[in-house]
Amino acid sequence: MKKFGLLAAIAAMFLGFASCEKVEPTALETSDLTASKLSGYVYYNKLDDTGAVEDVKVFEGKADVTIEVTELGADGKATGNVLLLTTSLKAGRFETTIPVAVGKKGQCKVTCIFEQENYDVKTTSDGADYKKTLLTYKGEVQQTVTYGETVYVELFGDKVGSLDDPYHFK
User: Which of 19, 100, 111, 162 suits 2 as a labelling partner, its CA being 20 to 30 A distant?
Assistant: First the structure.
């Protein structure tokens, strides 16, 4: 009798497993993913003819924004995958899609080098004089982007060199 009860229990268990529905996994489509985005504006300090900051202006000329993306694992350490993206400014604004895998982050180094006419100091024997000339600016910022996130950054261009600097870009 005990054997019959044991066999009945085992048979019931197998019947229970047989009645379970088998579910196939669905395919993951790229249209199902939410893209990560990085956008922002590029600014510079507009100087007056005395060299004082007159206004903070959006740079509206032509320039490219370079974004170096380093993939970070769940532990926050770089995985070794680095991607270089370039996007153009449109009315001082940029926006690009950052490829970030699910569960990972992208450490973004955003750089823009541009030229803008502005006042710069020219040292003369009788003192300093501010002349309007074409100056080179460089703006750089770092930002972390996670999967599916839209991040806004502001890039402030700092003057690179001066008229008296032999390394000034011309």
Answer: 19
